[in-house]
Amino acid sequence: MYDVIIVGGGPSGASAGRRAGILGLDALLLEKEDFPRYKPCGGALSDHAISYLDFELPEEVIEWEVTGAKVIFKEQMIEAHKDYRLLTLVSRDVFDNLLLEKAKETGIKVHTREKVLSCRETPEFVEVETKENTYRAKFVIISEGAHGLLKTCLRPLDTKDEYGVCVVAEVPAEVKEIEERLGKAIEMHFGVAGGGYGWVFPHKTYYSVGVGGIARDLPHPKEAMLEFLKENGFEGEYKLHGHKIPRGGIKRKVVGSRILLCGDAAGFVDAFSGEGLAYAIRSGQLAAEVISGICLEGGKAKDLKKYESLCQAEFGTHLKYSLMFSKVMHRFPEKTFRIFTSSEKMVDKYLEVVGLSMDYKDFLRWSLLNFKFK
Ligand SMILES: Cc1cc2nc3c(=O)[nH]c(=O)nc-3n(C[C@H](O)[C@H](O)[C@H](O)COP(=O)(O)OP(=O)(O)OC[C@H]3O[C@@H](n4cnc5c(N)ncnc54)[C@H](O)[C@@H]3O)c2cc1C
User: Fold this and answer.
1) Which pLDDT belongs to residue 72?
2) Residue 283: its pLDDT value, please?
């Protein structure tokens, strides 16, 4: 009987694993892939996300550093910067592998290439079935990401209004060319993907180029991506990768009697920007801390509920208001994104949200006071 079994070794699972190991829990992490593995992503790690790591990010993982953004809508473009770093660009195969190694370092058991098929809660334990084995644990953390069905033991799958679809490609490029095009900025193109945006992010040897929007409003993501690549002068043949992304800020059940959901499985993503790494890392850590309180500090199983309030207190309001902001912006895109791409003040304030020196609640209030969005 383990104290905790963690399903999935992405950022949320690996962070839960590391924290569980540090706290002294008897933990097993099960990951279906062999690591390092590819994960479709822009690879933009906010300083907010980095602040949750309890170790220095090694130099070799850092591919680019960003202080600002070029925000584009049709023929309008505006660029703004801060005098500090906002984002660090990483490749997810490397970054996720690092997080998993950091979890292993604490002595927890990690089985890769072992897919979990089911999790069954009983009053005393959770039974976890894989192709190879059946395990028991007092608690289970499901960190299977946006895909996968294990999460349905707690909540229904998201509807087409509740998740986004993304298509991403890595476009090879020389450093000089990337510097000339982007410098220390990312590009965000609005109006190219329903309810979302297209992006061009700088990496060491490639651009991450992608589009993502709400599933209902972006019925043909591949076509939108091909159009976006063409419009931006990326004319080669690129491997396209599709992936779901949950829309954060929606109320979802994330706690059962012995099971917790973390990261994308819980829907913890910024609905406007698509940032999920910070919330994946932090929710994984919080899940392990709550379980440690029960297993090692004399808590009761019902204390598991604390996980929900801890997540709510740390980032729940932020995600709720990012959804509201996203809805305001995408309701009348012609008007709102024209304002966004003509007001340096607004992009500057938005960068404060990215840097987390302002929250979405204050940003939304400030935007509504300063601009007429209808
Ligand atoms: C195209 C795209 C671009 C994005 N860009 C950014 C960005 O630039 N910045 C940002 O902050 N966020 C970004 N995100 C969001 C970010 O990728 C996610 O929020 C983050 O990966 C969530 O981490 P996770 O650990 O919850 O899930 P994942 O990273 O998806 O990890 C889940 C893991 O669980 C494993 N797994 C699944 N099922 C099982 C099973 N049954 N048994 C065992 N293992 C299993 C998987 O193999 C995987 O390794 C982007 C998302 C997409 C789709």
Assistant:
1) 97
2) 98
Structural domains in the chain, sorted by start? 2-369 (3.50.50.60)
- Helices 333-340 and 344-354: crossing angle, nearest 10°? 90
In this predicted structure, the answer to whether residue 216 has a pLDDT above a threshold of 90 is: yes
**Sorting pLDDT into bands at 50, 70 and 90, what band is 11?**
very high
Tell how far the Cα of 366 is from the centroid of ligand 1, in angstroms: 32
Instruction: Identify the pLDDT of residue 326.
Output: 96
Residue 371 has pLDDT above 90, yes or no: no
C-alpha 76 to ligand 1 mean position (Å) = 32
pTM over the 0.90 mark: yes
**pLDDT (mean) for 137-155:** 98
pLDDT at 372 over 80: no
Task: Using the mean position of ligand 1's atoms as its centre, give its distance from the Cα of residue 275 in Å.
Answer: 11
Q: Whose CA is nearest to atom 18 of ligand 1?
A: 276
- Find out whether the beta carbon of 116 lies less than 6 Å from any atom of ligand 1: yes
Does residue 232's CB lie within 6 angstroms of at least one atom of ligand 1? no
pLDDT of residue 148: 96
**By the 8 A CB rule, do 260 and 279 touch?**
no
Mutate to test the pocket of ligand 1, among 18, 28, 30, 31 (most ligand atoms within 8 A of CB): 31
Supply the residue whose CA is at minimum distance from atom 41 of ligand 1. Answer: 116
Query: Given this model, what pLDDT does residue 230 score?
Result: 97
